[in-house]
Structure formats: C-alpha cells, structure tokens
C-alpha cells in the first residue's frame, strides 16, 4: 500500500521547486520533508529525485507523480458523489501546462465559464508549444496544450485546431531596413525576436522561404512583451494572427511576406483515467476552441 503522505512530500518538492518551499506548503519542517523523501526512496528501492536546483523527478518519481495527479482527480469525483466525506470544503485545483500564446489569446475565454461552474482553480505552467508535453510526461501537470500529437503513455490527445502565425514587423523597422520594399533574402542579417530557446517558428519561417536557418535574435519569454518589442521596432518575429489583428489593422505592424503564414496545430493532452473533472474540461475545450481559433 502506498503511503500518500510520502507521495505528498514528493509532489510538493516538484511543484514548489524545492524542499524549503515544499515544507512551507505542507506546514512541515524542511527536515521532515527530506526524511519523507528518503523513506519513500527506501521503500521503493530507488531514488525518486535528482538533487539539482530545482529538483527533478527520476523515471520512478515521474511514475509516482503521474499516479498522484490521477488520484487527485478521482478523489474529486468521489467528493462530488459522497459530499459527506469532503473535509476540504474549498475549490479544486488543476495544474495545466500551455503555451504563452494560447494563454494570451483564446484560453481565458475557453475556460472561464467552466472554471466558475466547476469551482476549479487553475495552476497554469507556461511552456513553449513544442515542449509542453514534457511537464505532463514528468508527472507535473494533469493536462497540457502543445503542438505534439503523440500522447504519453496513459493519456489521450485531441486536436483543438490550427493557430496561424504571421511574420510581422513595425513600420519603423521596415522603413529602416527595407526603404525600397521588403527583400526576404535580407532577413538573416536582421535582428529577430524569439520567445525562448525552444521557439523554432522563426527558424521554420526562414526555411520555408529557402533562407538560412541561423540568424541573430533577441530572447523575449513573454507574449505581451514580444508584441511590444516588435511594435517598438526592435526586430521582426512570428506572432499569432489573432493576437495582433488590431495592430495590423491600425498599421502599427505589417506582414513582412504576405501569404507565408506558419500554422501550428494545437493538441489537448489529458490522462485517460483523469475522472469526470478532466473529461468535462476536455468536452468544453472541444466545443469552444475550434470556433475561437477560427
């Protein structure tokens, strides 16, 4: 039989990013958290954590974290069916990984009504759409939005739709670097703006134009900051068409190469045995998101 106090300690260390914050979240001493992790490893016969900063789960730890995520969801169903055993009396919390562009555009409208009706608090972990599945594989989240179709073991994936990205820049940037009109072949020598090390949209756009995939770029890990950097003329970059519709209409940003959009497929990944709560959220997303993405 699993000791869920030990699993709670493991989960807190991963979710809180360290032993000290895990101890605070559980109302225990840091020493107590350390002892519980050691006892869990002793009973399991293998390590569950890699002691780095922040701590990372081993393969065995990831299996346990996945189990905890699913147990939490199933316990929520049980409390709904048997309210007399609900000693918490509060709202449920659901950890989800999603890309910053979805968070900045369609996500809030898609989940607002559901969160209110189901009394759910979302703990959103922002990751690039190409790597969001990593957190789910590591047992850190119950579901994720990402660009990968293949689900992890024990999970399913659902295509939500296509998000088109446009290569845009400000009028100031275009006038400075292309006074006689945009020449795509010059883009490799001009500064771009990239969301983070895993963001390959700009690279794929260059390859689509038959240009070298290497270029100089600023790193800006914020969707809102990204658009402001482009509007200020710092560089060019790929942004969701729906996020900059107003800027394009007002002439604050312009497409560099019209007709060369990059479409990113967005998939919703969720645990197969995630209970009624996760099934309800999945149904809500399947109903709303395709229309929001257009």
Automatic annotation (TrEMBL):
Gene3D superfamilies registered for this protein in UniProt: 3.40.190.290, Winged helix-like DNA-binding domain superfamily/Winged helix DNA-binding domain
Domain HTH lysR-type: 2-58
Protein name: LysR family transcriptional regulator ArgP
Record's keyword annotation contains rRNA processing: no
Record carries keyword Magnesium: no
PROSITE patterns assigned: HTH_LYSR
Family: Belongs to the LysR transcriptional regulatory family.
PANTHER family, per database record: HTH-TYPE TRANSCRIPTIONAL REGULATOR ARGP, TRANSCRIPTIONAL REGULATOR
Top-level taxon in the UniProt lineage: Bacteria
Keywords from the named record: DNA-binding, Transcription, Transcription regulation
């Amino acid at each position: 039989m699993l000791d869920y106090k030990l699993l709670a300690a493991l989960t807190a260390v991963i979710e809180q990013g360290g032993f000290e914050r895990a101890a605070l979240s559980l109302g225990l001493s840091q020493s107590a958290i350390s002892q519980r992790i050691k006892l869990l490893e002793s009973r399991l016969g293998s390590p569950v954590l890699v002691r780095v900063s922040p701590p990372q789960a081993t393969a065995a730890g990831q299996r346990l974290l996945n189990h905890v995520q699913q147990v939490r969801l199933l316990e929520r169903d049980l409390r709904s069916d048997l309210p007399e055993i609900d000693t918490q009396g509060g709202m449920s919390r659901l950890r989800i990984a999603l890309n910053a562009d979805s968070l900045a555009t369609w996500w809030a409208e898609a989940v607002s009504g559901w969160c209110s009706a189901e009394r759910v608090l979302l703990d959103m972990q922002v990751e690039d759409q190409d790597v969001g599945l990593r957190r789910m594989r590591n047992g850190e989240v119950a579901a994720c939005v990402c660009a990968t179709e293949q689900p992890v073991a024990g999970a399913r994936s659902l295509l939500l739709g296509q998000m088109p990205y446009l290569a845009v820049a400000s009028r100031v940037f275009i006038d400075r670097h292309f006074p006689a009109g945009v020449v795509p072949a010059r883009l490799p020598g001009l500064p771009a703006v990239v969301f983070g090390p895993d963001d390959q949209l700009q690279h794929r756009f260059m390859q689509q134009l038959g240009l070298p995939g290497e270029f100089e770029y600023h790193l800006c890990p914020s969707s809102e900051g990204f658009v402001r950097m482009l509007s200020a003329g710092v560089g060019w970059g790929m942004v969701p068409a729906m996020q900059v519709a107003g800027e394009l209409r007002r002439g604050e940003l312009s497409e560099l190469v019209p007709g060369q959009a990059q479409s990113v497929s967005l998939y919703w990944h969720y645990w197969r045995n995630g209970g009624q709560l996760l099934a309800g959220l999945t149904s809500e997303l399947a109903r709303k998101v395709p229309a929001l993405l257009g």
